Amino acid sequence: MQKLDLLISGGKVHQNGDFVDADVGAQNGKICAIFARGEPLPPAVKVIDARGMHVLPGLIDTHVHMREPGFTHKEDITSATQACAAGGVTLAVDMPNVKPSTNSYERTVEHKALAQTRAVVDFNHWIGPPADLSEVEKIAGEGVIGIKVFMMNDTKRSYPHMPELGILSYGHLYEIFQACKRADTICAVHPHNQELFQWIEQRYFWEKGLTAPKDYAQALRYGDSIVYDTAFAALFILARSSGVKLNLLHLNTYLGTRMAEWFYRDGVDLSCEMNPPHFFITMADVEKRGPYVLGSWTPPKDQEALWKVVQSERLPFPAFWGTDHAPHHIDEKEVGWKDMWKAHGGAP
Ligand SMILES: [Zn+2]
After folding, report:
1. How far is the CA of 55 from the centre of ligand 1 (A)?
2. How far is the CA of 179 from the centre of ligand 1 (A)?
3. Residue 298 C-alpha to ligand 1 middle, in angstroms?
4. Which position among 14, 270, 295, 326 has the lowest Cβ density within 10 Å, counted as fewest Cβ atoms?
5. Is residue 185 part of a domain?
């Protein structure tokens, strides 16, 4: 038998949607054979004992907030990508809310060069919309995954939703979609209705002195999630009109899943990201762990809708998980016990 470069033996190998007892052989950096358990195995230069483990292809995480440059007291590209490697993620895509923000052609080139010297796994980037939208084509030409839009500015803190990245006008958003369409690149959007949320937080929470973590969580879900659902609807409609490839981030409502299905069937080129916390975090977690869970929370009926999507035999629309990994310093979290609007949002 020909000697293999690498043999991963004894684990449960992911195949056709299931985990099976098998051993994996690799040659020249590529998988060359999968052996059923018990089959005679060729010798190998290196053998990895995977007993008690699951064997998966390298995972791709399309939503990672690495904090370099500008916020390396939270994390840097090296430590973040080391964590990726430890968790089986071999391709990470980072977000543009760093300092300076990655939101021009020049910064795209700089940021790519930085990541090449600092990352220990494969890497790609989401780029914030440049002030000059004619740059989108050049940015796409750099091989980045696409443009990332935050429909949001923070109201009592300056991070993570920085004013220089927030797109609060539908007109501006529509032009960004058109520019992405021309450049044939994806546009990923963090959905939010800034005007509506500011109305809700002011009148129904701040004026009543309600600023605890559970208040913030409930404000985002006020009126059966109108802040999210109005944003989802606007995004789907603008995507349908512009023909952009839309990557909707944080799909997390019942109505959102229904709209995604309808617009996808109607021909909108969309994919939807879902985040693990939206499947699991309960209001009891929010009350117990306060600022240390994701500020947003998903009510049970919406969680049910998300599970229904991922458990369906055939996905009703293209959907995938992104971690939205978002580390912060402990001091930036602690303020949230008193006023969650001041705590930096996100969970590692
Ligand atoms: Zn994010």
Report:
1. 28
2. 22
3. 16
4. 14
5. yes
**CATH code for position 252:** 3.20.20.140
Domain boundary among 18, 35, 54: 54
Tell me, what amino acid is at 246? Answer: L
Q: Give the three-state DSSP class for 85.
A: helix
Which residues of the chain, if any, have pLDDT below 50? none
pLDDT number for residue 163: 84
Same domain, 146 and 36: no
Find the 175 Cα to ligand 1 centroid distance in Å.
Answer: 22
pLDDT at 160: 87
Spacing, Cα 37 to ligand 1 middle (Å): 41
| Amino acid 277: pLDDT | 92
Give the tens place of pLDDT for each residue, 149-177. Answer: 999 988 888 888 888 889 999 999 999 99
What is the DSSP-derived secondary structure letter of residue 345?
Answer: P
CA of 278 to the centre of ligand 1 (A): 13
Residue 204 DSSP class? I
Are 39 and 160 members of one domain?
no
> Which pLDDT belongs to residue 16?
85
Q: What is the CATH number of the domain that holds 19?
A: 2.30.40.10
User: Does the residue 120 lie in any domain?
Assistant: no
Give me the number of domains the chain comprises. 2
Same structural domain for residues 167 and 21? no
Distance 249 CA to ligand 1 centre (A): 8
* Same domain, yes or no: 226 and 315: yes
For residue 150, the CA-to-ligand 1 centroid distance in Å is 9
**What is the structure's pLDDT at 294?**
78
Q: 64 CA to middle of ligand 1, Å?
A: 7
Same domain, 25 and 160: no
- pLDDT in the model for residue 99: 93
How far CA 221 is from CA of 179, 294, 300, 348, in Å, comes to 32, 14, 12, 22
Return the ∠ at Cα 268 (arms to 262 and 272), rounded to 5°: 75
Range of the domain at 26: 4-54
Q: Which region, left, alpha or beta, applies to residue 16 given φ > 0 means left and ψ of -120 to 50 means alpha?
A: left
